[in-house]
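Usage

Read records sequentially. Each one opens with the input sequence:
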Amino acid sequence: MELAEFYEIEGLRRQAIISGNSELADQYSYELYQKTCHLPHLVFLNSFAMPEVLQTHISQSLINDIALIHPDETHQEVDQAENFYRSYVERLLNVDLSKVEILRAAGNFKHAEGRAVTCRATDHLVILPPRGEEYVSPDLLIHELGHTAEYTLRRASNDIEMLRSHLLFSEAIAHFCQYKYMVEFGTRTERLHALASVTKNHMLLRALRAHRELRDQPANFQVSRIIDHEYLDVYRAAYTKDRIEWLLEDYEGRSFIELYFTEAEPRMGAVLALQVMHNGAAIRELCLMKTNQPVREMLDNLNLKTEELMDFTQADALFRKFVEGTI
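and closes with the structure output:
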């Protein structure tokens, strides 16, 4: 497959999104996946971090603090011109995002927290909900712009081997931008609320571990089978059973492999982001790395302290520093 062919399909997808045709856009996304999923230089051989990520530790006290935050306390609508947030990420990662379009999508695109979509080298999209339907907080817009910064940096070389991001590092890059912004401009309550997505993901990790220990393991994720498992004790102490079921219902019936590699592991890039909060140069280098190599090898190539970065048992301490603004 030639890069020009790939970019042409991305351009068609972009047009479909702008016109509000989500079904057609999804068809183009599937076509792009089909054309790249078997390319040998885009296969992530031994590049995941399951043993380390499964050890992610978040304390009962932090989970309790996050559970007590009411969304109304953190309802901070985007209050600046969108170019303010674009410029913030541009300065942070030394990248030109002038061709990135921030789009208030038509009603058939429902992405309450926003979504970044690739298009060619620089014409990426950030899809936001229509005004008035969902509020979009500044840090979530920053997060999605962080994704477009990675896409732009990765594709500057016009190298087909740079098309695919490593999902763990991609989320680390976006969370780096988001958390930098929140330490500079957010309140303690807003930073606590920002961690709600991390605790939901931590809950998923523990639920996946619980499934692994079932005597007659189901083929797919079943909330009812693990809702009373001891691995979810820390969440039952903070949330009602109904609330936990609601938080996990998006995963019902999906395969364990899909949930781990597309949901659980990538979103723990938030931990890596906090590990390198004072090393923007390293984050920028992650944007430029080929990803068909082991995670540890990629970090070693950046001359970082790989063992420290991969110690997910330190997650709670890092999140606490972030909440207090002392990271």
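Summary fields computed downstream for this record:
- The two ends are 44 Å apart (CA to CA).
- Residues 41-46 have pLDDT under 50 and may be disordered.
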